[in-house]
Amino acid sequence: MMNLYIIYIFLIMFLFSSMTFVSSRKHLLCTLLSLEFMVLILFSILLFYLSYMKFESYFSMFFLSFCVCEGVLGLSILVSMIRTHGNDYFQSFSVLQC
């Protein structure tokens, strides 16, 4: 019974983080933070599932390494955007400019 409550809590947290990801349109940093929170919740769900089913947790290490790569890529895009445009507003640049 307790496991069902934990799954519901994870799903509600994922729902709220996905709503935050969709609603934050002004700043790239807020979007990246909500995306990292979604990945963290998915990692928690994966660990909970793998430990509950008595599987090996090697897949979680692969997932965690891909999450780190995704985070580094997002931060590098953020740094390059701040260096070229001076801020992280989406409205301050056009995609057509390159």
Describe the 3D structure.
With about 100 residues, the protein is mainly alpha-helical. About 5% of the residues are buried. The mean pLDDT is about 85. The protein is elongated, with a radius of gyration of 17 Å. The protein is built from three helices and no strands. The protein has a single domain (about 1-85), classed as Helix Hairpins. This is NADH-ubiquinone oxidoreductase chain 4L. One of its GO terms (cellular component) is mitochondrial inner membrane. It is a multi-pass membrane protein. Its EC number is 7.1.1.2.
Describe the structure in brief:
It is built from three helices and no strands.
Global Rg = 17 Å
The overall strand count is 0
Q: How many individual domains?
A: 1
* Count of separate DSSP helical elements: 3
Average residue pLDDT? 84
> Which structural category do the helix and sheet elements fall into?
mainly alpha
The CATH architecture assignment turns out to be Orthogonal Bundle
How would you sum up the major sheet? none
Globally, the shape reads: elongated
Which fold name corresponds to the CATH topology? Helix Hairpins
The residue ranges in which pLDDT falls below 50 over 5 or more consecutive positions are none
* CATH class membership: Mainly Alpha
The succession of helices and strands, N to C, reads HHH
Helix content: over 70%
- The end-to-end span amounts to 53 Å
Strand content: under 5%
